[in-house]
């Protein structure tokens, strides 16, 4: 029996009287990509913010099991938690400007991340950064340029490089292709997908775009009013949805 | 062996006045190693639904489908993912891929995902592309720009590239000319000779005859 990399039990978070997410339970196994879908306000972002340590949930349990080491995420000290987030988790924001420092060079953004997990040797940092800039298809001649000079798609690819360079164990992505135009979207999707396969990444991805979930996610959950109303294999949930709301969601997608 | 035991399947369409469509009641059949079973019956009777239930993309309402001593109806999502990776190949009617990925990469992907090395995956994929009569100048292009018949052959290549004990084929010979159809028929035969259990939907009599299939007539099997 494989142990889940992440096990969530009865997780709840409210904002005063407003429900963010309620009684969420789920498991994620190594190498799996989990998609979270649901309309605006359904609690998707609240959920991944709780799981990634950006928000403190009111109740519930979050257990990570990485290399046979169990971490009770909500019951460790603040300093242990910060270290865990730095070394084991990564967060790709919808808007790359939220995940990058725009007044620091592209290479500097990546180097900073490496230094945060203990890299000190400039040559090593530089060569790893160059390798990753290349991996996300940014010309290495741009490594010393400021991100302000980058296009939206390049910024998103830079943010992905910055997040993956330290080999985190779980990567959270909040609408990673949301703000990009369609042709750039395909390129970023293709990049995420090939990195997921090549590096056997474990990913939780939030998207309102069912096509993105279909192409990237192995499993998915559907959220409504803060709760999970349906979950399963992505192709099963999309092709044979069992809940009224999921059927509505799936049948509302426009066909090209 | 694949065993389908007392399977029921229906769909409830909540957004269309809760209409309930019953597809099967008490469906039973089995497929032995090396055997090719063809599902027969008019459009809409549920041929594709059977393949999707075996593959786990449709829920099995009642009954069991046994593969490798495992009941698909009760497996968890990650158990089904694992079973697909190690045992079940599925060729759908239509190719679904990300734009921009080349035909060669689309075919190599299942091998790379199960840990095969790049060089080996490359060689196997090139051979299959040649066997399938796909022109060399197409190999590095996205299949989304290909003709229907070419896309279908890429889809078949992706489903056939691994040596898996079970194969589900949804109209693999549908939009092909006679020469390419014969190529596919020979590939299917080769799989069957190696002991693969195959369930397919073949729209034409010619393919069914050539493949020497055992037919399962859903009109008779699913009388309800």
Structure report:
The complex is a heterodimer of chains A (256) and B (224). Chain A has 256 residues and is of the alpha/beta class. Chain A has 10 helices and 10 strands. The radius of gyration of chain A is 18 Å and the shape is globular. In chain A, 45% of the residues are buried. The mean pLDDT of chain A is 93. Chain B has helices at residues 47-55, 77-86, 103-113, 118-131, 148-160, 178-193, 205-211, 218-221, and strands at residues 2-13, 19-31, 36-40, 62-67, 70-71, 88-91, 166-170, 197-201, 214-217. In chain B, the strands form 2 sheets. A 5-stranded parallel β-sheet of chain B has the order 6-7-8-3-9, sandwiched between helices. A 4-stranded antiparallel β-sheet of chain B has the order 2-1-4-5, with helices on one face. In chain B, helix 3 packs across helix 4 (118-131). Chains A and B meet through helix 7, strand 10, helix 9 and helix 10 of A and helix 2 and helix 3 of B.
For this entry, give a set of tags.
heterodimer; A: Rossmann fold; four-stranded antiparallel sheet; 10 helices; 10 strands; B: 224 residues; alpha/beta; five-stranded parallel sheet
Summarize the structure.
The complex is a heterodimer of chains A (256) and B (224). By secondary structure, chain A is of the alpha/beta class. Chain A has 10 helices and 10 strands.
Content of β-strand of chain A: 25-35%
Give the termini distance of chain B in whole angstroms.
Answer: 27 Å
Oligomer: heterodimer
Question: Of all protein chain pairs, which has the greatest interface, and how many residues does each chain bring to it?
Answer: A-B, 27 and 21 residues
Mean pLDDT across residues of chain B: 93
Helix count, DSSP H or I runs of 4 or more residues of chain A: 10
Q: Share of helix among residues of chain B? A: 25-40%
